[in-house]
Amino acid sequence: MLLSLAWIVLICWLDGRVPIRLIWLSSLFIFIGGGQRVAKAMLFTIVSDAADASHRTRYMSFLSSIPHITTLISPPLSAILMRISIWLPFEAAIGALALTYVLILLMPESSELEPPDKHDNITYPVPDILAEDQRPLLFPDPQSIPIAQPAPPQKPSIWYTEIFHLLRIPTLRFCFVVFFVAPVALVAKAFVYQHASESFGWEMSTTTWLRVSQAVGASLVTLFALPTINALLHRRGLQAQRLDLGILRGSFLIAAVGFAVLWQARVSWMLVLALFICGLSEAIQPANQGLATSLIGREYNARFFTTVAVLETVGKLAGGPLQSSLFSIGRKEGHGSLGLNFLASSVIFGGLFVLALVVRLKK
Questions:
Q1: FRET pair for 92, CA 20 to 30 Å: which of 8, 70, 207, 231?
Q2: Radius of gyration for the chain, computed over Cα atoms and rounded to the nearest angstrom
């Protein structure tokens, strides 16, 4: 990410001396470390390793709230910095990314954070020297007592065999479906700003308020509501898996309502309200992550989150052309889109809500 951003700044700084299309090459740097998605997968893996099932969703929620909080902070901060220099926001971004490397170096290995197994501390005292009359007849010489040899190392499993193993868990299959289908529907939010400009006459610069509305709703849920609900119901003895499944059901229903309001919006304030409602559904990701990781062992966390990153990427790649085709219906000069892509997203989340209702957890 750091090299990619630095490359973009370099090409912009060399404006006129090199083709501006060289910016596209910045994506090649993602091959080095995988970019933001791999970094997120690693962070979620560390949280899953370090937290037990009862607190995992809470920490996942705090982690998910960070992008929404930065959405609220970064626009006014960038505006202030750009008044000083147009390059200052980029310099601040590069400095922030460089700071993450320092934090990574200070971060302990996640396996060291795992609680030790209760059997690991059991010791069996063995006398160092046996008296002559206490030596067993079978091995009269203490040096001849056989020592147990370590088991031969197991062959590392192939990645797809681990995934097939995870897919045998029925509820986990549902989680994988959510990780793939939800991004397909959420791509529709990228078209809201164009819809506001074409259908309601908003200037593109004023569509920032739509981002703020969504970020406020998402921050309220991920930073306050979800952790609070998780803590209160856990104290009352509600099983973590059932709590996560209940949050998923509620979030699917909220998202379906939010996108339905987007589709039916006829005035500007309805757009702002609809995105705020959609922001309230941002508990989907941390709740789904908490439910899924409670079903598998810690040794599968890394493989699980990298698979999730792939599913979400493929979902967005599939959702982009689909949402674009639906958004183009009804668009012509002097007339905006019919917003059928928002209706499609509402139907998708409605379907996920129905699917979540039939999911049953084993007691």
A1: 207
A2: 26
User: Token digits for 53?
Assistant: 């099932």
Q: What percent of the chain has pLDDT over 70?
A: 85
Q: How far apart are CA 63 and CA 106, in angstroms?
A: 18
pLDDT score for 41: 83
Alpha carbon distance 140, 105 (integer Å): 53
C-alpha to C-alpha distance for 356 and 327, rounded to whole angstroms = 28
Pair 252, 281: CB distance under 8 Å: yes
Torsion of CA 111, 112, 114, 117, to 10 degrees: 100
For residues 254 and 8, what is the distance between their CA atoms, to the nearest angstrom? 38
Task: Return d(Cα 60, Cα 244) in angstroms, integer.
Answer: 12
Report the alpha-carbon distance of residue 248 to residue 285 in Å, rounded.
9
According to the model, what pLDDT value does residue 75 have? 78
pTM of the model: 0.78
pLDDT average, residue stretch 126-147: 44
Better-scored residue on pLDDT, 182 or 130: 182
217 contact partners, CB below 8 Å, separation of at least 6: 275, 276, 277, 278, 279, 280, 282
- Alpha-carbon dihedral 202, 205, 208, 210, rounded to 10 degrees: 10
Q: Are 266 and 258 in contact (CB under 8 A)?
A: no
Measured CA to CA, the distance from residue 118 to residue 312 in angstroms comes to 37
- Rounded Cα–Cα distance for residues 69 and 81 (Å): 18
- Return the closest-CA partner of residue 281 out of 194, 189, 172, 180: 189
**φ/ψ of residue 180, rounded to 5:** -90, -45
Helix ranges, 187-300 (H)? 192-200, 208-219, 226-235, 240-264, 268-279, 284-293
Which element (helix H / strand E) includes 95? helix 88-106
Cβ-based burial of 320 (10 A; exposed 0-12, middle 13-18, buried ≥19): middle
What was the pLDDT predicted at 311?
Answer: 93
The predicted-structure confidence for 3-35, as pLDDT tens digits, reads as follows: 888 888 888 888 778 888 888 888 888 777 777
Residue 52 contacts residue 298 (beta carbons within 8 Å): no
The helix or strand, by DSSP H or E, that contains position 106, with its residue range, turns out to be helix 88-106
